[in-house]
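Listing S7. Sequence submitted for prediction.
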Amino acid sequence: MYLHIGGDVVLPCRSIIAVFDALSTDQQVTREFLRTYREEGFAVSTAEGGPVKSLVLTQEKLYLSSIASATLRRRWISFLADERE
């Protein structure tokens, strides 16, 4: 099962640790978190110049996505429902 998170990026669902809403998290903490990941070379943007709406954390990278976290959640639930059938 895979999840499209924006741009040309599709991730295996089992590799996703967490999805964060970039718009509702504490700005200072979010900025520090992003700065650290960018400095270490682990942040990848799939937003293609658009606004970052969600952060998708995997074991290897932090993906900055222009797709809302609620949309990613609905996609995930849809995949889970399909898999159970």
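Caption to Listing S7: primary sequence and predicted structure tokens for the chain studied. The radius of gyration is 13 Å. Residues 2 and 12 are 4 Å apart (CA to CA).
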